[in-house]
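Q: How do we represent a protein-ligand complex in a form that can be generated token by token?
A: Start from the inputs.
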Amino acid sequence: MNILVLGSGGREHAITWALAKSPNTDELYVTPGNGGTSGIATNIPGIDITDAEAVLGFAKDRNIDLVVIGPEAPLVVGIADTLREAGFPVFGPGAAGALLEGSKTFSKNFMIENGIPTARFQSFTEAEPAKAYVQEMGAPIVIKADGLAAGKGVFVAETVEEALEAIDACFSGMFGEAGSVVVVEECLQGPECSLLAFVAGGEALCMATAQDHKRAYDGDRGPNTGGMGVYSPVPMVTAEQLETMERIMRESAAASAREPFSSDYRGVLYGGFMLTEDGPKVLEFNARFGDPETQVILPRLETDLVDVMMAVAKGDISDINLSWSDKWAVCVVLASAGYPGAYEKGKVILGIDEAEALEDVTVFHAGTAVNNDGELVTAGGRVLNVVALGDTFEEARELAYRACALINFEGKQLRMDIGKKAADFFGNE
Ligand code: AMP
Ligand code: GLY
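Then emit the structure tokens for the protein with glycine bound:
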């Protein structure tokens, strides 16, 4: 089977790595890809992955049997619709389904209409009424740009002043169109947990739980990032909480197939949950695999990913059973100095081979490239995802940090407390 993956991050490297392991894979292309995917697949630079005709042209040219869409931007503009209309099996929802991520207001209304527990909210197109609502609700309170903002459009405001500033920031145009509608929502408390599911034909096959670390610095301080580390599964989740989250994912999948949504959703639905005292509530839906969640989920998936993705793309997952390794997975992100703010690129990266020589360590590339001298260099804010598997959580965590210590590039930035909450949980048991 000839497969095309769209995207260039750690998530896409992990997806490509899992597809490359399958005996069903013949040619594997990634556009644009990164310094990691180039070693296991053919990178195709120069295609704008939000340009439907360009992607379609390539798919026709290379006899592609399956297109896998990694990031949200091509989903939201409907690349999957164009490819499907032309007869290509696609893993990833069309534009209608991707609205669950592309518009927070749409997504919140979907939740409310389908009885899915979520934070109370209101949407605004102007600053003054949004500010009045904040004054009425008080702090802490959460302000969100409605559209796509690469994980950076959410402000958890501890004070009313911070919330008012965040509203001004959104309406100032810093997120472009994405900030022209602002969601103000109740601040929920509790541990967070992601639960992703393969969705097709109105059914959901849930994956393993994972916990991301979105803030830039240790102790969950600093600005929100795309994610600085993650582990799977999440030991703090009780059987009852897991059951509730799985039920919510199944109900959401069913609702996505029903009137009035009728989206024929085929891809991953990502549920971001807060485990509140009143039970799990949905913070957000994403229409794709999480990044970096994928980097700890796929190494634990024992089922052939090509079979799963093809079934999803064809709209029928009733014959698929997912099987998971018993191992724990911990991923630590190595980022460029300054991320999520401005950062420099082009720093030479050393030590990946040494890290991967450790048994049960895999390094997924997020923002890397090969320069004109053939050297692997940094090319993004999040540079590498160092993933370790272990028979115990502590083993996986210790191994991940041992591997991180072997890798160097100028300005290497990482959190030293990835998985600390799970480690404390085991310590306190
Ligand atoms: P999102 O992009 O919607 O996942 O939000 C990013 C992060 O902001 C989440 O992972 C939470 O840590 C936080 N967050 C979002 N919504 C809320 C909320 N209603 N209450 C508390 N924290 C939130
Ligand atoms: N890790 C969070 C996300 O992918 O949205």
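Residues 239-257 form the longest helix (19 residues). The chain is about 30% helix and 25% strand.
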